[in-house]
Amino acid sequence: MIKAVEWKESYLQLIDQTLIPSATVYKKITTIEETFEAIRNLRVRGAPAIGITAAYGLYLGMRESKASTREEFLAELSRHIEYLAEARPTAVNLFWAMDEIKERLHRSQTRDVNALKKELLTIALEIHEDDRQRCEEMANYGQEVIPEGARIITHCNTGALATGGIGTAFGVIYRAHQLGKQVSVFADETRPVLQGARLTVFELMEAGIPTTLICDNMAAALMQQRKVDLAIVGADRIAMDGSVANKIGTYNLAVLAKYHGIPFFVAAPLSTIDPEIHSGKDIPIETRPEDEIRKVFNQCLITVPSVPCWNPAFDVTPPELVSGIITEKGVLKPPYTKSIQEVLNNSLINS
Ligand code: MRU
Fold first, then answer.
1. How do residues 230-248 score in pLDDT, each as one tens digit?
2. Is the pLDDT of residue 349 over 90?
3. 235 lines ligand 1 (CB under 6 A)
4. Bridge partners of 327?
5. Where in the chain is the domain with CATH 3.40.50.10470?
6. Out of 131, 236, 274, 315, which one is annotated catalytic?
7. Is there a contact between 236 and 272 (Cβ–Cβ < 8 Å)?
8. What number does CATH give the domain 5-137?
9. Residue 202: DSSP 8-state
């Protein structure tokens, strides 16, 4: 399976996702500035993949550090964390991964700066491997919601390109396919950046999963004609009340699913839940450049060049539209205020 993010002994290798599926170009990332640029410009995207990339980016930023004491080292690390935190605001995995690094280095007793640098790389590699394992667990738990022969609709891209493993929503679908459940998928194209058309279709077809591409505005007709049995999407940030921020258009799909009586599931690791945010309205939503809408894929102008555009990259689906949240610890059910709190408490006890 394709690897979106790979550590190569002395540098970070990313697939430039802005070029898929026309070309598979690997980018060598050697500095924290290049890491920032790759995240900001969607060369690497998808909440877990962004978090993993940031973890390696911090190491790239710190490996030449001239700090002579532990205190200087940690202060410089904090400045780098602040810098990378500006790359994209919604995917909480970015902040989660960097907090994890900060906390673990603060807890460690290491005073030697070279040893701290090594520790930082070790933690980044562990965050990467940890996400791979979480994807496997989500894929297994998710099987309880996928019937034989399910016709599934998904939005955006949630596969290997978006994570450190087989994916979140995509991983659940992929495992169902591996188990011979004869599933098929409708992929929303996901305007304006076309993650569905470019990336999800590419991954589904590589995996040999029967795939049909639709424009985002076709989902209603598809459901009305009873051509789809369930929806599964990923998440960029989940509030404690179960509100789900995910790629713009996810909320449309959830409203449609509710109206047509179709189950709507979200698959996300616990690292996507933000314990600091209680309600969906407090999730910060990224606004992206207006030209993403005026032009198809930054090339072909499709409107009057001066028209103002509104381009939020994510929307928030309220918890009452979500049938279940598939995590690496099981499928959470409503009421989410209770099930999310319980799963976080249990994972704290077991960590
Ligand atoms: O803007 P993107 O491409 O980073 O948005 C990605 C999504 O919305 C995904 O659905 C989400 O990150 C879950 S990925 C496992």
1. 999 999 999 999 999 999 9
2. no
3. yes
4. 330
5. 139-350
6. 236
7. yes
8. 1.20.120.420
9. H
